[in-house]
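User: For my dataset I need records formatted as: sequence, then structure tokens, nothing else. Please produce one.
Assistant:
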Amino acid sequence: MPWKLSNDRPIYLQLADQIKLLILSGRYPAGSPFPTVRELAAEASVNPNTMQRALALLEQDGLLIGSRTQGRAVTTDESLIQGMRGELADQIYSGFYRSLTELGFTEQQIREFLHQKLS
């Protein structure tokens, strides 16, 4: 996976957001084993401590479950995943809607635009 990192926010927050998206999109299905800190850190070209910090955030959110003997796994709580997925979709839609209204689109024009793009 190509990691997209910039200097505008802390790296661990960017990593956590990208991993969260991978989980919510189903790339890492509910209950599946999760790669190790070292594997992910090497893949993203970051310090393992930075990756550990990102994964700790996802554990706090409940998306990852840690076990001393088995490593990490994605939560089996499908309702948590679906709820977070819906929240993220709402955030994306709100940003989209706000951007179009700032461009001067009316609600009707936004509906027509969406209809045109989905057809």
